[in-house]
Amino acid sequence: MKLPGQDVIAREAGERLVTHRVKLPQKAVPHPLRQVSKRLSMALLVLVATAFIVYLDRDGYNDNAGGGLDLLDSFYYATVTLSTTGYGDVTPASDSARLTNILVVTPLRVIFLIILVGTTLEALTERTREELRLNRWRHTLRDHTVVVGFGTKGRSALQTVRASGVPADQIVVVDASGKVIESAAAAGYAGVAGDATRSDVLKRAEAHKARQIIIATQRDDTAVLVTLTARQLNRGAKIVAAVREEENAPLLRQSGADAVITSASAAGRLLGLSVLSPAAGMVMEDLIQQGSGLDIVERPVIKAEVGKKPRELDDMVISVLRGHRVLGFDDASLGTLQIADRVITIVRSSQARQVAPDQRPLPHPDRQSGTIDRP
Known about the structure:
elongated; single chain; 375 residues; seven-stranded mixed sheet; alpha/beta; four-stranded antiparallel sheet
């Protein structure tokens, strides 16, 4: 397979991006224009209330221009007073007017300033709050899941990961499209907009501290470069990648992927199985949908199961993970279960026991022995 240079892919991604940045999930907030309009309405309400208070006590005010205060003069006085301009051409003369200014107009002046100045301060401090929140997020994020590509494959993978008990705040989405990252943030995931073949973008997603990395890009060559970059940053993470063409799967494994899923071949095999047996196709589709019907679960062997054969367990065991090998339930070399074994079982979704995933890299096929060994 001929791989284009990394600079070509970066240039193509750059055409879709203005800049790459981290987008944390946020609670639903009103539109900024709606917030400003609301605060301006509150300020106007305070101004009108002050003007009417002055107008009701208009006989207690002195106007240097002569004559009594009308409604326009009351609004004029309220405006220059609340804005702390204070020209002094209209002043409270009577004791009641002065007392009203002390007890009513002055608090209204403070409220008026809080509304207007508060809006300005909030705009100025929003960036600071976001930076503090981002630094706290980076400091606390550990053993999380990074998903590169938030298309159909990436979304489906996240649904399965969430169904296994992984919280949304332990998932970071990386995608080249800013709109896609906005969608991920709306779904409750932290997101990084940028080209995942660049190490600085993966570092923004804290990939070097991740437990597992799912690569679900649209192109196979991009998946190879992302896998190489991710493996260079994190030697211990479990990396699972998807490719379209089966001939590219070995290249992904050589690049550092622990497991490679061929999406086109897998879909074709499921189609073929459904043609031969629609019921069998439905069962297989049910098995790969976590959280409904039948589920495939990997769990450790408990003490009560040590010394038993896989068929003697209450759960339907299909494979046993022993050391670096995955053995079938009927493998002659399996014998009885050991305390360090992990079993892969088929259970009802309501009976599925959510356990922490194994942090070891997934094993790879060994063609000679027929078992599955880690390379």
